[in-house]
Amino acid sequence: MPETTKHSRGAASEDPIFDAIARHKAAWRVFDRATDDRHEPAEADQDAVEAASKNELDALAEVLSTPPTTIAGMRAGIEYVHVLCNRESVPECAMQFMPTLLRSPVLAA
Q: What's the domain range around 25?
């Protein structure tokens, strides 16, 4: 998962984007372990892969729909989505974040 700009503990509690990013990183780690290529997945493993995939996609949807509420959160959200979408070669994922950014109170000023 991409690393985002370092932020203070206070910023994380002020801005929900940090929690959304943390949940996605955790979901991605579970998905990554579930899809480990070192063995042929058993049927039970396939259920775990499907559940992990759904959780990861739900967590990504949360990131893409959570407007940052601080400047630090705005930067972290943009950076995380940019790196993630480029790494996964899914540029439309970044475009999905644009309307969310426009709803941010940071840009209301």
A: 9-107
